[in-house]
Amino acid sequence: MDMFVMSTIDAALAAQNAAIAAEALGLGVCYVGALRNHAEEVCRLLNLPALAWGVFGMAIGWPDTEDRRSGTRLKPRLPMREVLHLEHWSEEGQEDRVRAYDRALGRFYVEEGKAGRMGWGEFVASKAVPWEQDGRERISGVIERQGFKLK
C-alpha cells in the first residue's frame, strides 16, 4: 500500500511542477481525471509496465480565453476556503458557500449556453453514491492487476 501511495504522490508532485513551469511560460494546464474512467484501456494503450497506471492525464497548451458570447471567461471554482483548511478542518459555513458556488456555476453555465447542468454539490454527490462511476468503480482491480498489493 505504501508503494502505491508514494507513487501516486510522486505523480501528483511531478505534474504540479510541470503545471507551474508551463504556467510560468504563459501556457494553460488542465488535469484530466476522466482518464481513470477507462483505466484498463489506458494501461493497455500506453503499454504500461507492472506497477504503473494512469493516475490522471494532463493537457498543456495555449489557453483560448476568448468566448464568443461574453469575452474573457473563466469557469468559477469552488472557494479556496473549501479546499484549504489551516490548522484544523472546519465545516462552519460550508453549506452556504457551496450553495453560493452552485449558483455562480449555474449562472456561468447559462451564460455559456450550457443551461440545465447540475450544480457542483449535486454532481459530486451523484459520483459518491452509485455503484457505477463511469468506470472508476473498477480502478482497484486495474491497480491490483498492475501489480500493486493493496491489501
From TrEMBL:
PANTHER family noted in UniProt: OXYGEN-INSENSITIVE NADPH NITROREDUCTASE
Task: Give start-end ranges for the coiled-coil region(s).
Answer: none
Instruction: Report the family membership.
Output: Belongs to the flavin oxidoreductase frp family.
Q: Which Gene3D superfamilies match?
A: NADH Oxidase
Provide the species name.
Answer: Aspergillus pseudodeflectus
UniProt keyword Glycoprotein present: no
Annotated Nitroreductase domain residues = 6-62
Pfam families for this protein: Nitroreductase
Keywords annotated in UniProt: Flavoprotein, FMN, Oxidoreductase
Q: What is this protein called?
A: Nitroreductase-like protein
Note the superkingdom of the native organism: Eukaryota
